[in-house]
Amino acid sequence: MIRVIIFDFDGVIVESVDIKTKAFTRLFEKENKSITEKIINYHINNTGISRYEKFGYIYKEFLKRPLSDIEFQKLCNNFANLVIDAVVNAPYVEGAREFLEDYGSLYSFFIASATPQGEIEEIAYKRNIDRFFKRIYGAPNKKTDVIREIIISENIKPSESLYIGDAISDYMAARDNAINFVARINNNESIFTDINCPKIANLKNLEKIIDFMNKKDREIETLTKLA
User: Fold this and answer.
1) How far is CA 188 from the centre of its chain?
2) Three-state SS at 218
3) Which of 36, 51, 90, 106 is the most exposed place for a label (fewest CB within 10 A)?
């Protein structure tokens, strides 16, 4: 039975993926056009990875120049200035707000995001949804470690938890911890083509999927007892 639900944030609770893409475009728009295109493609293909990691990779692999601490902090500050207010005011993924309101008493909710810790807490607070979550995790916490910590702190089996994400890194973090995974699909179909998991366009029918998972667990439990 599912007891814990862990949500990615951008693209799962809020329609904010494009906001982050536009921010990366702005940050590197003065670079050579072909380099900028490579940077944006890299970002889009790695949406679940922290911007901290992305900046280091971009400078090493694409810009071929060192990233000083001063330049790194400047990038972080500029990125935050570009995105925070926009994400606070972005629309919800259809069904997300309703699910949080309707099922908060039935499940323990957590956020595991690649957004920096202070920033994701600020966004959740300004959107008045922080109250729904038992804990909010952001970067530099690794999602794999976050899931493991939640399983231990909640004293649950991996099968009693569910992660909802929209990036391959989300799926891998769930897989590494042997927990259930649901992919939110929105112009990212290709990355989940060969992955066998429930795929949803929004969160309107999320409870039905959870009911199906719980039913399968009960059937397996019954068969185990009969064996």
Assistant:
1) 13
2) helix
3) 106
13 vs 141: CA distance, rounded Å: 19
CATH superfamily, domain 4-15+92-226, is HAD superfamily/HAD-like (3.40.50.1000)
How does pLDDT run across 108-138, given as a tens digit for each residue?
Answer: 999 999 999 999 999 999 999 999 999 999 9
Sheet containing strand 4-7, strands side by side: 135-139, 108-116, 4-7, 161-165, 180-184, 199-200
Label residues 23-35 b or e (16+ Cβ within 10 Å = b).
bbeebbeeeeeee
| Residue for token pair 């944030």 | 9
The token pair that represents 84 in the structure block: 């925070």
Alpha-carbon distance of 192 to 166, in angstroms, equals 9
Cα 172–chain centre separation: 12
